[in-house]
Amino acid sequence: MRPMLPSLAAFLLLVGGFLPPAADPPAIAVVPDERDTVNLPDAAILQTLVADLDGDGAREVLRLVRGPDDEALVEAWAQGPAGWVLVDDPLQVVPPSRIGTRIDPVYLATPVRMLLRRIDGVDRVTVASQPHFEEIDVGDPCCLVLEDVVLGPGGLDARSVAEAIDFSDAILAIDLDGDGTDELLTTRSLPPLGDIEFPTEARVHRWDGSGFLPPTVTRLTVGSGHAPRLLGDSDGLPGDEAMFVSGDPGVSGVFRVRLDAGDLLATDGADLPATDAIAFPATEGDGVALVGPTIGFAIAPWPAGEGVGEPTTELTIADGRIVGVAAVDGPRVVVHEPRTESLRLVGAPAAAGPAAVTVTRSPAAARLEGGPLVAYSGPIPGGGADGAPAVIHQGRLIPSPFAGPFDESSLIASLAGAQPVGLAGPDRDLIVLDHAPIGFQPPIDPAGGSLLVPPVRPASWTSIVPVEVAGEREHDDGLLEPPIRDARVVDGRGAIAVGRAGFVAEVGAPAGSRVYVVDGDPSVVRSPIVVPDGGRVDAPFPPPNVVTPDARYRAVLLVQTPAGHAYQATWDVRVRTDPPPLAVGSSTPFGSGAVEISGTTQAGAEVRVDGQVVEPDADGGFRAMVEVPPWPTDVTIDVDDGLGNLATRNVTVIGWFDYRGLPWVPISAALVAVVGVVLFLRVPRAAPLPRREDDDAVYEEIDPDDDRR
Hints:
The protein is mainly beta.
């Protein structure tokens, strides 16, 4: 067992202390392993909470899941010598609505949720459900059913703790009188009375040691259709108060609901147009922190039976949101202003420390902005290791492992897509995380809220992680460069080219991690790929269905680890569907049987000349020598760009002496001249015979008009 540490910050401080963000971090090829992390089996999760169900000091993990026949089941997981094991068979708390081919309307679409309440400081888990029993000719359908989940020597069991009453819209576990035992506050909206009254019926169910007594009923004018929330102790009197935030005409604003005499309830209006509030000491005791678009942010006293007093602290905030309360040099309200990205830690006037700091998100949390996963922002249920309030906002833990009074640069993991359920283990050294597949889903408050049919979160899962592992920052700020196949780098900026089939990323990550593929349209995300026990999985990236030649898009890969870490890889992708360019030439050295084949093509392509592999240079140029006979011969050049696109050229070459390249026109003219000269010189000519001395022949002209007739 690890010794109990004073706070969650101490866990993180032991691990590594303050880690300043790197200016230009390198990327990692494989997501590092996460030690001692446990993944519970996948299920259709409706709700998860942490409670010491059997009173042994170690907190168990309870999950409300949807069964195979549409029933609602409670699983209890406990830590034993062999690790986390399922305690007994899952407990059915809502029967199936389908029995064979018949639909049972009683249990069809039944609202159900678990509540964590305390009796003298001991945890109790109550399942509240509302089957649709029809009360014919008697009244409205009913009933609200309350059952405690009990873990004893005989295993997991359910025990009824109240008589069934009519429907409720919401339920809240709250210690209204401050005696250490929670009451139940149930509410039901009533039809409007007149033009401006929107009444809500509120009922207080008090615990008598073995069950809940029949409730006392109070009609409150706080608007209709709103669920009560836990405000805390804002009036300084024993016990906590509930809160309604109403937007109904005539009754808009924040209303406080407190216990009055006879277990009836009283309502105090804030008289300020606030949109959110939380109990916080204005001076030495009671008080409330409020936020709204017209009032900004204010901390003020709120005595019982009165409106909010004069603020002791005011801030000009146009668009604020209360994240929670954290213990940093005393209690502080953590307020986020999205428009200016300011995070303000506001305390009472006498408290030391900064009133506001600039948000420094973890780089991984910043990369997730606009993506399918969102970094968690909100309180850690139950606080840190010592129960002190702690908040996580945009990749920052407050309080954080700081060296001085406060360090606004202290970062932790982004908790991407993960909702902290609470701390478990005998020393509260394990954090339970529910992982949502896409986007941000508000956590289900274990104290209660609206009684609705819970949506099944597809592909959701639960992990149990050592606190110090969950608190570590992502390695290299979450920048990932996994190996890829069927793609080629095309420039110095890392752009890649792919073929018609796309490419594949080879992802290495802790077992149970989810891998998300986002290609082309960022709003379309395919189902996550679960990393198996081997820690390796292929993530295919088929290109978008576009007809544009040489189409381009941005591919994004997200890895969500069991510890809530987020890693991201991005590629600028060009889709190539045309054959690679290819220009080819040849030359034959005189008297050589080897012909030189040369050409240019796409850089990085595979070139084969007459079956011989040739490596092109950085510009795509290539040369090869091919042995050929001294007569015309065809040589084939094949180019494969590695993306499924081929180009082929045939050239005819001649070995030893390639006469095709000679200047045949002047050569032909010269040959003709030579032949003419030869022929001229070889033509025979007649020569006169020498005259003999006795030759008296003379030439006599023959006259055609000779008169010899």
